[in-house]
Amino acid sequence: MNADEFIDSIKKGEPYPVYLLHGEEPYFIDQISDFFQDQLLNETEQVFNRRVFYGKETDFKTVLDEARQYPMMSSRRLVLVREAQEMKGMDEMVGYFENPVASTILVLCYKYKKFDQRTRAAKAIKQHGMVFESKPLYDNQVPDWILKEAFRRGIKIAPDACQLMAEYLGTDLGSIVQAIDKIVISATPGEVVTAHDLDDFIGIHKDFNVFELQKAIGQRDTVKAFRIIHYFEANPKASPMVMILANLYAYLAKLFAARAANARNDQDLMAALQLKSPFFLKEYKEALKHFSLPQLEEALLLLREYDLKYKGVNSKGVEEGALLKELVSRILL
Hints:
3 domains; Rossmann fold
């Protein structure tokens, strides 16, 4: 069950007295908790019957005291705990989970990690309430998610643009939604946003971005690599140096791990590359044809060296573009 289906199930039925929202992807937890906070009770009911806490700023006793109170001029009461992973004493709430107040809806937002489902607390919540695990999307799921999320916000983004956004922003759904919101503000109603439009709307160029640069390096395409670097020099905000170095290091580190693993088949190669889907496998296989293990080791050492130079170690006054050109030249020697 995804977040939309979970929300629909709440709308269609009588709410449970306890909800646990947990998992590694914070966006879906926020999406559901925002529904509880803004839509479960009407404006009049919210005044007397909605309490929102943050884990760092509260304790289990305060939450339980609120949860045990009865609603005023309403049939239900909402107690919402955001960042519940920061709250001390969750284990002390087991007694309440096993015998919750029927008129209270207690929502615990336990973000960035899973809540141990073997515990007595989790078992009690499952028995008397509902548990939602927020799982990160796989890389190959992100473009389709962008397409649907944009449509939900009233705009159409072409598949090529969705793919480029996924490559550039990764699986960080919060950043992706911020980018979509910028497009909503800038796009003409009814317009289909293409990959070429992204440069104007959110600063992502179809042909000149860090992913095209790493692809050019993987293919040992010096001309393309330097064309991209020239674009970065002319548009310094397009790809900050710190982001370029971080992405190149992650990319080459994966290639190094794959080369060292000496994978015998695509499945082994995916495991070595830590890919959850074969979507980008072809690109990595092509790059592995152009780099030996010693070459990749040298490239990683160069990235460390130039990271220090970027931070001012033995390179005062050297511009970022010059450093990047020098780095790429040495990698592609």
